[in-house]
């Protein structure tokens, strides 16, 4: 993220020196897009994460189809759609890091002072970054989920376990996968605004996504059945498959719960952004 120091800030945000350049959300968002596309590290994290989703989805599907067997002891593939989406479990990590770096990189280089000076309202900086991150991640993430589905089902079909795009839950999983990755990126952005440190924000993000479910599994069963379904990753990933555990939330309800976690991080981030010095 060190490239941030070399960006020409006159192209990033409108100047108020002449008094005739009005600061609008559209101008700030355009400036955030310039920052995003100017940094090689953001594209490395984004493309790398999405490539992992496709590659692992295909690999998991191929291995599952191969070991499912076709003889008398065959156990089959109960949820072929979820199998092809398994790559998202690893791909979410670089996508979340991308969201963190989109803001903490500016704090690391001091560029955040220029951004906030050009947009004194401050809140529009977070909103502008959120818009850019949402559009890019959702579009590319949904395309990636479509590719992971098609390749994964092709691999499963080598042993006749695959399903088509017309199968129940296929498009929901594809579009839901794009939404899930987008929410992960925005959660990373919110953590970045809250903590302002790259290491601290990434640790917090990984803790929310990966550590909380592990801690939840250590709870007594009577507690775990009620608590675990509301944890970020557990709730958000219910949309990636067709078979539903009765102890988990319904697909869209789970996505809504994950969206609330993300909204809480962003609201906390913008609150601190408005109150403390850059």
From TrEMBL:
<dbReference type="Pfam" id="PF12679">
    <property type="entry name" value="ABC2_membrane_2"/>
</dbReference>
<feature type="transmembrane region" description="Helical">
    <location>
        <begin position="202"/>
        <end position="223"/>
    </location>
</feature>
<dbReference type="GO" id="GO:0140359">
    <property type="term" value="F:ABC-type transporter activity"/>
</dbReference>
<keyword id="KW-0472">Membrane</keyword>
<keyword id="KW-1133">Transmembrane helix</keyword>
<feature type="transmembrane region" description="Helical">
    <location>
        <begin position="83"/>
        <end position="105"/>
    </location>
</feature>
<feature type="transmembrane region" description="Helical">
    <location>
        <begin position="252"/>
        <end position="274"/>
    </location>
</feature>
<keyword id="KW-0812">Transmembrane</keyword>
<feature type="transmembrane region" description="Helical">
    <location>
        <begin position="43"/>
        <end position="63"/>
    </location>
</feature>
<dbReference type="GO" id="GO:0005886">
    <property type="term" value="C:plasma membrane"/>
</dbReference>
<feature type="transmembrane region" description="Helical">
    <location>
        <begin position="126"/>
        <end position="151"/>
    </location>
</feature>
<feature type="transmembrane region" description="Helical">
    <location>
        <begin position="171"/>
        <end position="195"/>
    </location>
</feature>
<protein>
    <submittedName>
        <fullName>ABC-2 family transporter</fullName>
    </submittedName>
</protein>
